[in-house]
Amino acid sequence: MTPFDSLLLRTVAVGIGATALMDLWLTLLKALGLPALNFALLGRWVGHMPRGQWAHKAIAKAAPVRGELALGWAAHYATGITFALLLITLAGPAWLHAPSLWPALCVGIGTVVLPLCVMQPAMGAGFASSRTPTPALNVLKSLANHTVFGLGLYAVARVIASFTGA
C-alpha cells in the first residue's frame, strides 16, 4: 500500500506536479529574458474578490493586498489541482492507473480559456491580452504555458503510475 492508492491523493499530486513543471518552464522563459507571470498580481486580484471587486482597469495599479504573493502562489496551485480534478472527472479515475497523453494535453490546452477569457479581462489586460502591447505574443505564451501544463499532467501521472505498479 502506497500513499498514492487514494484517488484524491493521486489527483492532488498530479495537479501539484504539473503546476510545478509549468513553473519550471516559466523559470526557463524568465532566464531567457521573457517576462514571466507575476503571482503577486494574481494574489492581488484574488485578494480583492472578498471585497466585491472582481474586475480592475489595471491590476498593477490596484491597491496591494496583504500577503498577495503567497495568496497568488496558493491560487496558482489550487487552480492546478482543480484542473487535474477536471481531467480525472472527464477521463475517469482509471486514467490515473494508465495515463494517456491526449486527454491530459486536451485538458491542459483547454485550460488556457481561463486566463484569456476571464483572468486577463478581469485584471485589465482585455480579452486575450487585447489591451497589452503584444497581444499575439501573450496569447502564444499562454498557449505554450498551458500546453506544458497538459504535458505535466501526463508526465506526473505516468511517474506515479510507474511507482505504484498501476
Strand content: under 5%
| Helicity, as a percent range | 55-70%
What is the number of independent domains? 1
Per DSSP, the total helix count is 6
Please give the largest β-sheet: none
Give the assembly state of these chains. Answer: single chain
How many strands appear in the DSSP assignment?
A: 0
Structural class: mainly alpha
Distance between the termini: 12 Å
Mean pLDDT: 94
Name the overall outline: globular
Question: Using only CA atoms, what is the Rg?
Answer: 17 Å
Provide a concise account of the structure shown.
This protein is an all-alpha fold. It has helices spanning 7-31, 39-48, 68-91, 101-110, 113-122, 135-164.
Explained architecture:
The chain has 166 residues and is mainly α. The chain has one domain. It is 66% helix and 0% strand. The protein contains six helices and no strands. The chain starts with 6 loop residues before the first helix and ends with a helix. The relative contact order is 0.18.
Topology, element by element:
Blueprint lengths: L6 H25 L7 H10 L19 H24 L9 H10 L2 H10 L12 H30 L2
